[in-house]
Recover the amino acids of this structure.
């Protein structure tokens, strides 16, 4: 052997390697137990719901006859909701993050806002539902409409978008800002041309997570009174609506076995929507990331 | 009290600038919150010359350099007192827009910091935001040629600047600064992150650039200061110990401390 080490040193080293192995196995086990649980869940749902999945299911309104029931209105409602929530929460969230990181400085007010946003991220979603009911539905007379739902959902996910965007903006190296300033750029020019594009991939990650959460949320929608039985399609933001989680919730709470299976099929549709949405967002993110590198 | 060897043309506060100088520092003090980083520094920066600022770590030389184009504005608690004259105007006057100052006094940083964009966009962006209306193609070519980088990158102007080597990136940063046609170019240890070959590229470049520009360089490397600069300022603990033509500083300095430093006895 090339290295001369004492018995004691060898023993010591072996022990350290053993510890490292043990730790990596521990982490692996934790990870895989989570994945396994998810796999069991998905399997269960697929078994129950898969045979209900067909075009008729996607293209039908709810019905009290299971074989005629479908998710058409719920699916369209959810798509409406995603688009409206994205249109409201992304500009507001990203602007807030930019303001806090780039313009507000480190004063006391900025600190207070920061703490409050962190707290808001932990508020239960039902509370947002109550707020939405009071402010949007009642006070602003927006009724039980898509726009009420979208505004409520936007409030719910804003803290997540703001916090994630701030973290992304923080990772932009200071040297990039200095480079821009040294060329006679104003703060706005620096932010718009360099800080925002460089933090875009990180912001997108936050937005994806937040929107995914929004489309799975049920409680706030029930609170503001999204209908559970909608046999028409919403045509504008002021229309009444239902959404996939609400429809699923409705089916699960019925006594008949067939409706439970329909709920499982609805969950599969919801997962598919989620997957398509995330895939699109990740595709956009990777594309811009590559352009920057 | 002005240090020995000081350019005798240095005027007192309130006097107009000497006709050969681009920048004049008169009793400049720089503070970080309560701590004073630069004490009563006065010297003149001559047009079309290279002025080097040398001194041990933490002597305030980078702080002083950053005050020349108001980059210290971004450091919290930094405060500048005294007169920094540029075109007979105080850079820190209340009616002076720091954005305008930085447009006319460019800067190259210690670590190359190209934008994560194409080579072309790195150079064209500065002029564009400052209202440059003509086609930027010619400007990009001219700037890259001035920075002696054109031959190496002319076939891949739209590749990312981050694919360039460290030395090329630093020359790109110089080209980017030159595209603004600044009156003064500040360089903060521009070679400290580079290998010897890239360093000599940049030193050659500086010789050519002084035909058109005035350069102020902070450097840790005394040989570099001796090789390239016309004037040298030696600083220690925030004080300007000696300012003179470079040859004089490195052969017959007036002050013992300067001699000890340039002969490598400390620092």
């Amino acid at each position: 052997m090339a290295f001369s080490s004492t018995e004691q040193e060898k023993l010591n080293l072996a022990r350290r390697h053993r510890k490292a192995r043990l730790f990596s196995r521990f982490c692996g086990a934790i990870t895989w137990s989570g994945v396994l649980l998810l796999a069991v869940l998905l399997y269960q749902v697929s078994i129950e719901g898969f045979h209900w999945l067909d075009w008729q299911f996607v293209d039908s309104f709810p019905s009290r006859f299971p074989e005629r029931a479908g998710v058409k209105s719920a699916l369209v409602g959810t798509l409406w909701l995603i688009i409206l929530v994205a249109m409201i929460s992304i500009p507001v969230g990203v602007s807030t993050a930019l303001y806090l990181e780039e313009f507000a400085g480190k004063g006391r007010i900025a600190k207070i806002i920061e703490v409050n946003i962190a707290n808001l991220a932990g508020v239960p979603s039902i509370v947002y539902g109550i707020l939405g009911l009071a402010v949007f539905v009642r006070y602003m007379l927006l009724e039980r409409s898509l726009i009420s739902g979208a505004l409520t959902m936007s409030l719910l996910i804003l803290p997540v978008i703001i916090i994630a965007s701030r973290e992304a903006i923080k990772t932009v190296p200071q040297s990039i800002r200095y480079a821009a300033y040294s060329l006679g750029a104003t703060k706005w020019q620096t932010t718009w041309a360099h800080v925002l594009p460089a933090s875009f991939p990180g912001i997108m990650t936050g937005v994806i997570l937040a929107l995914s959460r929004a489309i799975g949320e049920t409680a706030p929608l029930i609170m503001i009174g999204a209908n559970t039985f909608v046999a028409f399609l919403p045509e504008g933001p002021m229309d009444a609506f239902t959404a996939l989680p609400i429809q699923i919730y409705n089916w699960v709470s019925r006594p008949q076995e067939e409706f439970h299976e329909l709920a499982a099929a609805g969950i599969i549709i919801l997962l598919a929507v989620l997957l398509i949405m995330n895939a699109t967002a990740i595709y956009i993110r990777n594309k811009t990331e590559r352009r920057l590198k | 009290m002005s240090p020995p060897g000081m350019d005798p043309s240095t005027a007192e506060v309130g006097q107009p600038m000497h006709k050969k100088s681009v920048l004049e520092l008169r009793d400049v003090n720089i503070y970080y919150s309560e701590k004073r980083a630069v004490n009563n520094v006065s010297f003149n920066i001559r047009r079309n010359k290279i002025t080097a600022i040398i001194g041990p770590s933490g002597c305030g030389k980078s702080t002083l350099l950053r005050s020349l184009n108001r980059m210290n504005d971004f450091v919290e608690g930094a405060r500048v007192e005294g007169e920094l004259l540029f075109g007979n105007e105080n850079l820190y006057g209340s009616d002076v827009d720091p954005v305008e100052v930085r447009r006319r006094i460019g800067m190259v940083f210690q670590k190359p910091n190209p934008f994560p964009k194409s080579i072309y966009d790195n150079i064209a962006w500065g002029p564009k935001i400052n209202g440059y209306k003509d086609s930027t193609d010619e400007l990009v070519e001219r700037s890259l040629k001035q920075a002696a980088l054109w031959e190496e990158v002319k076939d891949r102007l739209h590749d990312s600047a981050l694919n360039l080597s460290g030395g090329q990136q630093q020359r790109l940063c110089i080209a980017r600064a030159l595209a603004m046609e600044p009156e003064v170019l500040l360089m903060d240890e521009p070679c400290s992150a580079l290998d010897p070959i890239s360093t000599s590229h940049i030193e050659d470049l500086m010789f050519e650039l002084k035909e058109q520009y005035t350069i102020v360089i902070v450097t840790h490397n005394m040989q570099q200061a001796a090789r390239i600069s016309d004037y040298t300022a030696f600083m220690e603990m925030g004080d300007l110990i000696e300012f003179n033509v470079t040859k004089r500083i490195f052969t017959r300095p007036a002050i013992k401390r300067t001699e000890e430093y340039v002969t490598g006895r400390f620092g």
Q: What stands out?
A: Strands of chain B lie at 21-32, 35-46, 50-54, 78-86, 89-90, 105-108, 184-188, 214-218, 231-236, 239-245. Chain B has one domain: 21-262.
